[in-house]
Please model this.
Amino acid sequence: MTPPADPARYKHHRFPGEIISHGVWLYYRFPLSYRDVQEIMFERGIDVTHEAIRQWCLKFGQDYANQLRHRRPQPGDKWHLDEMFLTINGERHYLWRAVDQDDHVLDILVQSRRNKHAAKKFFRQLLKGLQYVPRVIITDKLKSYGAAKREILPGVEHRQSRYLNNRCENSHRPLHANASIACRGSSPQDMPNAFCRRMAPSPNTFALDGTSCRHRRIEKR
Model:
């Protein structure tokens, strides 16, 4: 993960931006707690407290995520959308997620409902800042998708099938593990959303090709 170009942001930090950005990347990329990241950093010769790592994530996490979003290539034209249950402080929430045909994460949103209004909100967030619409979207058979799609994306093909959407359902697994750790003890809904927004771009920067198992990185622009 590339740290921000402005060195002034690291002026009062004991570690350089390369180390800070690596610690932040570890936390958002893998299902790790702050103490887990602390142990990994210590094994690599970096003595930093878990509280310092937490502060790094709060201060720099969103900036790093924004940079990665700006650097990513244009997403594919086939979008897989799905939602999953997420328990936060004993209350059920729904984690909405979208990936393209190349497994690039497009966006993530945590909501308390999965009705038409929630689906429309997720569609609007997906389309924000894009100069195009997808060729086709693939979802499960939740009726909220069809109702929202008819209003937001009327000219886009919509395929609904339990089995066509395995790509998105499989990609939920690491996110669920990360979010479950991060959302422990959180009460406001914007906290898990903030975490998910910071985490969403990180898998795209270092992923395994499903066919050749070769590493791929986003090229710097």
About this structure: Confidence is low (pLDDT under 50) at residues 184-190, 207-221. The first strand starts at residue 78 and ends at 88. DSSP finds eight helices and seven strands in the chain.
